[in-house]
Sequence to fold (277 residues):
Amino acid sequence: MSNICPQCKEPMPALSKICPLCGYIEASENSHHTNPDDMIRQMEFHTQTLNKKQLTLGNVLNSLMWVVYIALTIQFVVMGIVFVSLFVLIMALLLFGLFCFSLIKQLRGKTKAAKAGLHCKLAMAELETLERQCLSYYGKDRSVSQHVNLMSELKDNANNRRRKNNLRQYLIGWFIIAAFVLVTGYIQYDFMKYVLDEEQNRSLTQVEASLKDNNYDDAIRIFLTQDMGKRGDYEKAMLIVNSLLEKSKKSEAAAFIEQCSALRYPSDKEKLKQLIK
Fold:
């Protein structure tokens, strides 16, 4: 049954809320958005949300800090094991705690990046709902239909810009974090190599000084107590064996080799035995 338009008193088509003669719009009792102008304004507001809630590089880096923390934790653990340092291992434990905190914050959506994503998701849902309602209630009004189509186009453009921006910021963020991890890893490796080389050279110098003074017992003592089982122990042991052989002390060299039971590589002991054959 047709309704009567209260404005021009002419019958309105069934299931239509717009008078084809005067353009009167009938309010819907079931809709909370009875005014198309209000609905258009709300669509504009949510579209602005899509434009404003774009990620920044700072937001991305903050959301990816858990990657930095776990990388630093691994690096400090390696350093602590190599140097047998309790302090470094404690630092690794603190970094692991920061990693857990940062990861939980990320998973719970408490970062600025996650909050911005949620706001945009809600804005898109509201825009799609308002668009359907406008077209359903007032779709036959050409002006309203044009405004809705315009807002739909602005919505799609804003959402596409947001996605492209987010992708760009995440790519830059991952690149920065990867570069940071590589640089810190290289610095750590270079530092450990330098310290170990200095330690090896210092120890080698002590062994060489004792052999130069023909103090074989002191050279053997330094090797057995300080160097055996560490990097470069074979070269030092070989130096002692060759020095003993040069002095025709084959039996002393054989006795020394028998004491080399904890070399870094067990096969090196057989190599030393080949020297006295």
